[in-house]
Write a structure and sequence with these properties.
2 domains; alpha/beta; globular; 14 helices; binds S-adenosylmethionine; Rossmann fold; 7 strands
Length: about 300
């Protein structure tokens, strides 16, 4: 039974995820995150696998990537079924290899040991019991298979301290909430035009190309992310640590547990200057800004 919290979570994400589906650059950028190299696997490793994309989102970008990489079947699962029309726009070309399922990671509607590869990105903090969700995902992983998880780490870096603070402000301050809710390419362009025009009228110095460069830092892809950080309901603040998640894998009997560098490609905006810190999460600069950062881990379930 879906709770009102879950229904709200779904509704908020549905808006972003439809926008991402509608923009080929953003959709392809998300799809490009599924690369064997990223998971430390040889090319072709997804070929012939049965994959679960748990909490796939309305555009099911990772499901699409696994199918394009030759998975035998991909089950895309999310709450309710209001997202399926959106997911089908890209997935229907794969025919019966793609299945869309309504369900919760807290109570997966599958037998034990059902999938060779379980993928769950950015979902668990939105559930009321992340550990239970983890155990469910571990349960449906086949012996010899792998389970990949993305979970936002603890807010011990500057950026997430700010985000947690601003998330509180978003709940209580009408002016801030309205500004975030209205943030999009159009409103941002108006603000940037005003800034650059005013700057030009008040300053004489101009560096060749600076206005174009400044504009290039902001695009819809960035604004979707910013709105997501403030608007998306979470049961849990960003409070997970790498050590804790490693412990969960170990408790569930996984081996070869490894954190992988966040793989980022094709940002056309400000985030391309942050991407080196996503990839080198252990560098002191990355630790300063992001703390434990966005934790991406994978573990293998021992074979029979
Ligand atoms: C940050 S989005 C991530 C979507 C997708 N995995 C991606 O990486 O683009 C979080 C998703 O988790 C889903 N979700 C939240 N609680 C869930 C639950 N209990 N079971 C399954 N999905 C859930 C939301 O509906 C939303 O689509």
């Amino acid at each position: 039974m879906e709770t009102s919290f879950e229904a709200e979570t779904r509704a908020v994400f549905d808006r972003y995820q439809r926008q991402q589906e509608n923009d080929d650059h953003i959709f392809e950028r998300l799809v490009s995150l599924i690369e064997e190299e990223y998971f430390g696997l040889p090319t072709g490793s997804f070929h012939g696998l049965d994959v679960l994309d748990a909490g796939c989102g309305s555009n099911a970008n990772a499901s699409y990537a696994f199918l394009r990489k030759g998975a035998r079947s991909v089950v895309s699962l999310d709450l309710s079924n209001d997202w399926m029309d959106c997911a089908r726009k890209r997935l229907s070309r794969f025919g019966p290899r793609s299945a869309l399922v309504t369900g919760s990671v807290l109570d997966l509607p599958f037998d034990d040991e059902n999938f060779d590869f379980v993928h769950c990105a950015g979902v668990l903090p939105h559930t009321r019991d992340p550990k239970k969700g983890f155990e469910e995902l571990a349960r449906v992983t086949r012996p010899g298979g792998s389970f990949f998880l993305t979970i936002m780490g603890t807010a011990n870096g500057v950026i997430y301290r700010c985000i947690n603070h601003l998330r509180e402000l978003y709940k209580t301050d009408d002016q801030f909430r309205t500004a975030i809710d209205n943030l999009n390419a159009y409103t941002a362009r108006e603000a940037i035009d005003w800034l650059l025009k005013t700057k030009a009228s008040e300053e004489k110095e101009y560096i060749a190309g600076e206005n174009e460069f400044f504009r290039s830092l902001f695009d819809d892809d960035l604004f979707v992310t910013i709105r997501d950080r403030f608007q998306a309901p979470t049961y849990h603040e960003f409070s997970f640590t790498e050590v804790q998640i490693r412990g969960w894998y170990a408790e569930c009997g996984f081996e070869n547990i490894r954190r992988i560098s966040r793989y980022t490609r094709d940002f056309h905006n400000l985030r391309r200057f942050l991407a080196p810190m996503y990839r080198h999460y252990d560098h002191p600069l990355a630790r300063f800004w992001f703390g434990d950062g966005c934790i991406q881990m994978i573990g293998d379930k021992p074979g029979n």
